[in-house]
Amino acid sequence: MGKKIVDFLWGTKQRKIWTSVIVGLFAASILINFIAPVPPPHVALSGEPIFSTGPKWFTNSVLTTIIVDIILLLLALATRFSLKEVPGGLQNFMEAIIEALYGLAESVAGKNAGKFFPWVVTIFLFVIISNWSGLIPGVGSIGFYHPYPAEEKHGEDSHAYLSDNQLAMAGGSIILAAPESVQAAPAAAVSEKGKFIPLFRAPSADLNMTFALAISTMVMVQIWGVRHLGGSYFRKFFNFSGPNGFMKGINGFVGILELISEFSRVLAFGFRLFGNIFAGEIILFTMTFLIAFLLPVPFYVLEVFVGFVQALVFMMLALVFFQMSTISHGSHDEHH
Protein backbone atom coordinates (compact mmCIF):
# COMPACT_ATOMS: atom_id res chain seq x y z
CA MET A 1 0.00 0.00 0.00
CA GLY A 2 2.84 2.36 0.91
CA LYS A 3 4.62 1.63 -2.37
CA LYS A 4 1.46 2.51 -4.33
CA ILE A 5 1.18 5.84 -2.53
CA VAL A 6 4.84 6.62 -3.19
CA ASP A 7 4.45 5.71 -6.87
CA PHE A 8 1.32 7.86 -7.13
CA LEU A 9 3.04 10.90 -5.63
CA TRP A 10 6.62 10.37 -6.78
CA GLY A 11 6.50 7.82 -9.59
CA THR A 12 7.25 10.11 -12.54
CA LYS A 13 9.05 13.40 -13.06
CA GLN A 14 5.75 15.25 -13.61
CA ARG A 15 4.27 13.82 -10.41
CA LYS A 16 7.38 14.83 -8.48
CA ILE A 17 6.96 18.40 -9.71
CA TRP A 18 3.26 18.56 -8.80
CA THR A 19 3.83 16.97 -5.39
CA SER A 20 6.68 19.38 -4.64
CA VAL A 21 4.60 22.40 -5.67
CA ILE A 22 1.61 21.34 -3.56
CA VAL A 23 3.72 20.54 -0.50
CA GLY A 24 5.62 23.83 -0.91
CA LEU A 25 2.44 25.90 -1.13
CA PHE A 26 0.92 24.05 1.80
CA ALA A 27 4.02 24.70 3.93
CA ALA A 28 4.13 28.35 2.79
CA SER A 29 0.50 28.90 3.82
CA ILE A 30 1.30 27.61 7.31
CA LEU A 31 4.51 29.65 7.55
CA ILE A 32 2.77 32.87 6.48
CA ASN A 33 0.42 32.60 9.46
CA PHE A 34 3.45 32.96 11.75
CA ILE A 35 5.24 35.66 9.75
CA ALA A 36 2.21 37.80 8.84
CA PRO A 37 -0.79 36.70 10.94
CA VAL A 38 -4.13 36.93 9.15
CA PRO A 39 -6.76 39.01 11.00
CA PRO A 40 -9.63 36.96 12.48
CA PRO A 41 -12.58 36.38 10.12
CA HIS A 42 -15.32 39.00 10.19
CA VAL A 43 -18.59 37.57 11.54
CA ALA A 44 -21.89 39.48 11.73
CA LEU A 45 -25.45 38.15 11.99
CA SER A 46 -26.95 40.88 9.80
CA GLY A 47 -25.94 43.22 7.03
CA GLU A 48 -23.91 46.27 8.00
CA PRO A 49 -24.24 49.81 6.59
CA ILE A 50 -21.66 50.46 3.89
CA PHE A 51 -21.35 54.18 4.58
CA SER A 52 -20.67 55.37 8.11
CA THR A 53 -22.51 58.65 7.43
CA GLY A 54 -24.98 57.38 4.82
CA PRO A 55 -28.37 55.65 5.04
CA LYS A 56 -28.43 52.81 7.54
CA TRP A 57 -30.67 50.67 5.33
CA PHE A 58 -28.06 50.50 2.53
CA THR A 59 -26.11 47.53 3.87
CA ASN A 60 -23.61 45.25 2.17
CA SER A 61 -26.27 42.54 1.84
CA VAL A 62 -28.68 45.02 0.19
CA LEU A 63 -25.95 45.95 -2.30
CA THR A 64 -25.33 42.28 -3.12
CA THR A 65 -29.09 41.69 -3.44
CA ILE A 66 -29.29 44.48 -6.02
CA ILE A 67 -26.39 42.91 -7.93
CA VAL A 68 -28.09 39.49 -7.82
CA ASP A 69 -31.30 41.06 -9.18
CA ILE A 70 -29.35 42.71 -12.01
CA ILE A 71 -27.70 39.38 -12.85
CA LEU A 72 -31.12 37.69 -13.01
CA LEU A 73 -32.52 40.42 -15.27
CA LEU A 74 -29.50 40.29 -17.59
CA LEU A 75 -29.71 36.50 -17.72
CA ALA A 76 -33.40 36.65 -18.62
CA LEU A 77 -32.83 39.28 -21.32
CA ALA A 78 -29.82 37.45 -22.75
CA THR A 79 -31.83 34.22 -22.93
CA ARG A 80 -34.82 36.00 -24.49
CA PHE A 81 -32.82 37.64 -27.26
CA SER A 82 -30.74 34.53 -27.97
CA LEU A 83 -33.75 32.34 -28.81
CA LYS A 84 -33.29 30.63 -32.17
CA GLU A 85 -34.78 27.69 -34.02
CA VAL A 86 -31.40 26.01 -33.71
CA PRO A 87 -30.54 26.49 -30.01
CA GLY A 88 -27.15 27.85 -29.03
CA GLY A 89 -25.11 27.31 -25.88
CA LEU A 90 -26.99 29.65 -23.53
CA GLN A 91 -30.39 28.61 -24.87
CA ASN A 92 -29.56 24.92 -24.47
CA PHE A 93 -28.33 25.49 -20.93
CA MET A 94 -31.38 27.49 -19.84
CA GLU A 95 -33.82 25.13 -21.55
CA ALA A 96 -32.29 22.16 -19.73
CA ILE A 97 -32.67 23.93 -16.37
CA ILE A 98 -36.22 25.16 -17.02
CA GLU A 99 -37.41 21.78 -18.32
CA ALA A 100 -35.97 19.95 -15.32
CA LEU A 101 -37.54 22.40 -12.86
CA TYR A 102 -40.87 22.37 -14.67
CA GLY A 103 -40.92 18.58 -14.51
CA LEU A 104 -40.53 18.79 -10.74
CA ALA A 105 -43.24 21.44 -10.50
CA GLU A 106 -45.63 19.38 -12.61
CA SER A 107 -45.08 16.29 -10.46
CA VAL A 108 -46.18 18.29 -7.40
CA ALA A 109 -48.77 20.79 -8.66
CA GLY A 110 -50.19 18.94 -11.66
CA LYS A 111 -52.43 21.23 -13.72
CA ASN A 112 -51.53 24.21 -11.51
CA ALA A 113 -47.83 23.93 -12.38
CA GLY A 114 -48.16 26.52 -15.15
CA LYS A 115 -49.55 29.09 -12.69
CA PHE A 116 -47.04 28.50 -9.92
CA PHE A 117 -43.94 27.86 -12.01
CA PRO A 118 -42.96 31.50 -12.77
CA TRP A 119 -42.99 32.25 -9.04
CA VAL A 120 -41.11 29.19 -7.82
CA VAL A 121 -38.47 29.21 -10.57
CA THR A 122 -37.76 32.87 -9.79
CA ILE A 123 -37.36 31.94 -6.13
CA PHE A 124 -35.00 29.10 -7.08
CA LEU A 125 -32.78 31.23 -9.32
CA PHE A 126 -32.69 34.12 -6.86
CA VAL A 127 -31.84 31.90 -3.88
CA ILE A 128 -29.19 29.83 -5.65
CA ILE A 129 -27.36 32.90 -6.99
CA SER A 130 -27.62 34.52 -3.55
CA ASN A 131 -26.22 31.39 -1.91
CA TRP A 132 -23.34 31.06 -4.35
CA SER A 133 -22.50 34.77 -4.27
CA GLY A 134 -20.93 34.25 -0.86
CA LEU A 135 -18.45 31.79 -2.39
CA ILE A 136 -16.98 34.36 -4.79
CA PRO A 137 -13.47 35.38 -3.68
CA GLY A 138 -13.59 38.85 -2.14
CA VAL A 139 -17.18 38.65 -0.89
CA GLY A 140 -16.93 39.11 2.86
CA SER A 141 -13.20 39.89 2.75
CA ILE A 142 -12.95 43.06 0.62
CA GLY A 143 -14.09 46.17 2.44
CA PHE A 144 -13.00 49.18 4.44
CA TYR A 145 -12.81 50.43 7.99
CA HIS A 146 -15.34 52.64 9.74
CA PRO A 147 -14.23 54.78 12.67
CA TYR A 148 -15.58 53.61 16.01
CA PRO A 149 -18.37 55.80 17.42
CA ALA A 150 -17.48 57.44 20.72
CA GLU A 151 -20.17 55.52 22.61
CA GLU A 152 -19.00 52.21 21.08
CA LYS A 153 -15.44 52.88 22.20
CA HIS A 154 -16.67 53.68 25.67
CA GLY A 155 -18.73 50.50 25.74
CA GLU A 156 -15.81 48.40 24.62
CA ASP A 157 -13.54 50.02 27.20
CA SER A 158 -15.96 49.41 30.05
CA HIS A 159 -16.36 45.74 29.14
CA ALA A 160 -12.65 45.29 28.56
CA TYR A 161 -11.56 46.05 32.12
CA LEU A 162 -14.68 44.92 34.01
CA SER A 163 -13.15 41.58 34.97
CA ASP A 164 -10.20 43.31 36.68
CA ASN A 165 -12.32 45.56 38.87
CA GLN A 166 -12.84 44.87 42.58
CA LEU A 167 -15.75 45.57 44.89
CA ALA A 168 -15.24 48.35 47.44
CA MET A 169 -17.32 50.36 49.90
CA ALA A 170 -17.56 54.14 49.59
CA GLY A 171 -20.07 56.25 51.52
CA GLY A 172 -22.10 53.21 52.42
CA SER A 173 -22.46 52.12 48.77
CA ILE A 174 -20.82 49.28 46.87
CA ILE A 175 -18.72 50.46 43.93
CA LEU A 176 -16.31 48.94 41.42
CA ALA A 177 -12.74 50.07 41.85
CA ALA A 178 -9.79 49.47 39.54
CA PRO A 179 -6.23 50.77 39.26
CA GLU A 180 -5.74 53.73 36.90
CA SER A 181 -3.28 51.73 34.82
CA VAL A 182 -5.91 49.06 34.18
CA GLN A 183 -8.53 51.63 33.24
CA ALA A 184 -6.27 53.44 30.80
CA ALA A 185 -5.01 50.31 29.05
CA PRO A 186 -8.11 49.53 26.94
CA ALA A 187 -7.96 52.92 25.21
CA ALA A 188 -4.75 51.85 23.52
CA ALA A 189 -6.25 48.45 22.65
CA VAL A 190 -8.89 49.99 20.37
CA SER A 191 -7.92 49.48 16.72
CA GLU A 192 -6.72 52.67 15.09
CA LYS A 193 -8.21 51.55 11.77
CA GLY A 194 -11.72 51.18 13.15
CA LYS A 195 -14.35 48.53 12.51
CA PHE A 196 -13.99 46.46 9.35
CA ILE A 197 -17.08 46.46 7.10
CA PRO A 198 -17.16 44.08 4.08
CA LEU A 199 -18.35 45.69 0.86
CA PHE A 200 -20.34 42.62 -0.17
CA ARG A 201 -22.25 40.02 1.83
CA ALA A 202 -24.25 37.04 0.57
CA PRO A 203 -27.97 37.97 0.83
CA SER A 204 -28.84 34.50 2.14
CA ALA A 205 -26.51 35.06 5.10
CA ASP A 206 -28.65 38.00 6.26
CA LEU A 207 -31.77 37.27 8.30
CA ASN A 208 -33.46 40.35 6.85
CA MET A 209 -33.40 38.89 3.34
CA THR A 210 -34.36 35.33 4.29
CA PHE A 211 -37.30 36.52 6.37
CA ALA A 212 -38.41 38.98 3.68
CA LEU A 213 -38.41 36.12 1.16
CA ALA A 214 -40.21 33.81 3.61
CA ILE A 215 -42.90 36.42 4.37
CA SER A 216 -43.37 37.17 0.65
CA THR A 217 -43.76 33.45 -0.09
CA MET A 218 -46.34 32.92 2.65
CA VAL A 219 -48.27 36.01 1.56
CA MET A 220 -48.44 34.48 -1.93
CA VAL A 221 -49.73 31.25 -0.36
CA GLN A 222 -52.68 33.18 1.08
CA ILE A 223 -53.24 34.99 -2.24
CA TRP A 224 -53.33 31.74 -4.20
CA GLY A 225 -55.71 30.24 -1.65
CA VAL A 226 -58.14 33.16 -1.92
CA ARG A 227 -57.91 33.21 -5.73
CA HIS A 228 -58.85 29.53 -5.98
CA LEU A 229 -61.30 29.17 -3.08
CA GLY A 230 -62.53 32.69 -2.39
CA GLY A 231 -63.62 33.49 1.15
CA SER A 232 -64.04 29.79 1.98
CA TYR A 233 -60.24 29.54 2.10
CA PHE A 234 -60.27 31.06 5.59
CA ARG A 235 -62.49 28.25 6.87
CA LYS A 236 -59.41 26.20 7.65
CA PHE A 237 -58.40 28.90 10.17
CA PHE A 238 -61.82 29.79 11.56
CA ASN A 239 -63.98 26.67 11.46
CA PHE A 240 -66.46 26.22 14.29
CA SER A 241 -68.83 23.87 12.49
CA GLY A 242 -69.75 20.42 13.78
CA PRO A 243 -72.63 18.20 14.82
CA ASN A 244 -72.23 19.07 18.51
CA GLY A 245 -70.44 21.47 20.82
CA PHE A 246 -67.49 19.13 21.36
CA MET A 247 -66.74 18.80 17.64
CA LYS A 248 -67.18 22.54 17.16
CA GLY A 249 -64.55 23.11 19.83
CA ILE A 250 -62.22 20.55 18.22
CA ASN A 251 -62.58 22.11 14.77
CA GLY A 252 -62.00 25.58 16.23
CA PHE A 253 -58.86 24.37 18.01
CA VAL A 254 -57.56 22.73 14.80
CA GLY A 255 -58.15 26.01 12.98
CA ILE A 256 -56.03 27.85 15.55
CA LEU A 257 -53.26 25.28 15.05
CA GLU A 258 -53.47 25.85 11.28
CA LEU A 259 -53.11 29.59 11.83
CA ILE A 260 -50.09 29.07 14.09
CA SER A 261 -48.54 26.73 11.52
CA GLU A 262 -48.71 29.49 8.88
CA PHE A 263 -46.56 31.74 11.07
CA SER A 264 -44.24 28.87 12.01
CA ARG A 265 -43.58 28.27 8.30
CA VAL A 266 -42.21 31.80 8.04
CA LEU A 267 -39.79 31.05 10.89
CA ALA A 268 -38.82 27.69 9.39
CA PHE A 269 -38.28 29.21 5.93
CA GLY A 270 -36.20 32.10 7.22
CA PHE A 271 -34.02 30.27 9.73
CA ARG A 272 -33.41 27.19 7.54
CA LEU A 273 -31.96 29.17 4.66
CA PHE A 274 -30.07 31.62 6.86
CA GLY A 275 -28.69 28.93 9.17
CA ASN A 276 -27.28 26.73 6.43
CA ILE A 277 -25.64 29.53 4.43
CA PHE A 278 -24.35 31.46 7.44
CA ALA A 279 -22.89 28.33 9.05
CA GLY A 280 -21.23 27.40 5.76
CA GLU A 281 -19.61 30.82 5.52
CA ILE A 282 -18.29 30.55 9.07
CA ILE A 283 -16.73 27.15 8.28
CA LEU A 284 -15.09 28.48 5.12
CA PHE A 285 -13.78 31.58 6.93
CA THR A 286 -12.38 29.41 9.74
CA MET A 287 -10.67 26.93 7.41
CA THR A 288 -9.19 29.74 5.33
CA PHE A 289 -8.02 31.50 8.48
CA LEU A 290 -6.23 28.36 9.67
CA ILE A 291 -4.64 27.21 6.38
CA ALA A 292 -5.47 29.13 3.22
CA PHE A 293 -4.11 26.57 0.74
CA LEU A 294 -5.94 23.33 -0.16
CA LEU A 295 -7.71 22.81 3.19
CA PRO A 296 -10.82 24.91 2.32
CA VAL A 297 -11.35 23.13 -1.04
CA PRO A 298 -13.53 20.21 0.24
CA PHE A 299 -15.63 22.63 2.29
CA TYR A 300 -15.95 24.94 -0.72
CA VAL A 301 -17.30 22.07 -2.84
CA LEU A 302 -19.66 21.13 -0.02
CA GLU A 303 -21.02 24.67 0.15
CA VAL A 304 -21.66 24.69 -3.60
CA PHE A 305 -23.79 21.58 -3.11
CA VAL A 306 -25.52 22.96 0.01
CA GLY A 307 -26.35 26.19 -1.83
CA PHE A 308 -28.05 24.21 -4.61
CA VAL A 309 -29.93 21.96 -2.18
CA GLN A 310 -31.22 24.88 -0.11
CA ALA A 311 -32.48 26.69 -3.21
CA LEU A 312 -34.23 23.53 -4.40
CA VAL A 313 -35.75 22.88 -0.96
CA PHE A 314 -37.05 26.45 -0.72
CA MET A 315 -38.58 26.16 -4.17
CA MET A 316 -40.22 22.78 -3.53
CA LEU A 317 -41.64 23.81 -0.16
CA ALA A 318 -43.08 26.99 -1.68
CA LEU A 319 -44.62 24.90 -4.46
CA VAL A 320 -46.14 22.43 -1.99
CA PHE A 321 -47.63 25.25 0.09
CA PHE A 322 -49.03 26.92 -3.05
CA GLN A 323 -50.68 23.66 -4.08
CA MET A 324 -52.04 22.93 -0.59
CA SER A 325 -53.66 26.36 -0.45
CA THR A 326 -55.81 25.51 -3.49
CA ILE A 327 -57.37 22.44 -1.86
CA SER A 328 -60.63 23.30 -0.16
CA HIS A 329 -61.18 22.23 3.43
CA GLY A 330 -64.60 20.84 2.57
CA SER A 331 -63.31 18.56 -0.17
CA HIS A 332 -60.54 17.45 2.17
CA ASP A 333 -63.12 16.38 4.76
CA GLU A 334 -65.22 14.56 2.17
CA HIS A 335 -62.15 12.72 0.92
CA HIS A 336 -61.52 11.38 4.41
Work out the number of β strands: 4
Share of helix, binned: 55-70%
Low-pLDDT stretches are 154-164, 181-190, 331-336
Structurally, the number of domains stands at 2
Order of helices and strands: HHHHHEHEEHEHHHH
User: What is the molecular shape?
Assistant: globular
| Rg calculated over all Cα atoms | 28 Å
Mean pLDDT: 78
Would you kindly provide a written description of the structure presented here, covering whatever features stand out?
It is a single chain. This protein has 11 helices and 4 strands; from the N terminus they run H-H-H-H-H-E-H-E-E-H-E-H-H-H-H. It is mainly alpha-helical. The strands form 2 sheets. Strands 1-4 form a two-stranded antiparallel sheet. A two-stranded antiparallel sheet has the order 2-3. Helix 3 packs across helix 5 (113-133), helix 4 crosses helix 10 and helix 5 packs antiparallel against helix 10. Mean pLDDT is 78; it is low at 154-164, 181-190 and 331-336.
Topology:
Elements: H1 2-10, H2 13-35, H3 60-81, H4 89-109, H5 113-133, E1 143-146, H6 150-160, E2 166-170, E3 173-177, H7 180-189, E4 195-198, H8 207-229, H9 245-290, H10 296-325, H11 329-335
Antiparallel strand pairs: 1-4, 2-3
Helix pairs in contact: 3-5, 4-5, 4-10, 5-10, 8-9, 8-10, 9-10
Q: In summary, what is this structure?
A:
The protein is mainly α and 336 residues long. Helix content is 66%, strand content 5%.
Relevant terms:
single chain, 336 residues, mainly alpha, two-stranded antiparallel sheet, 66% helix, disordered C terminus
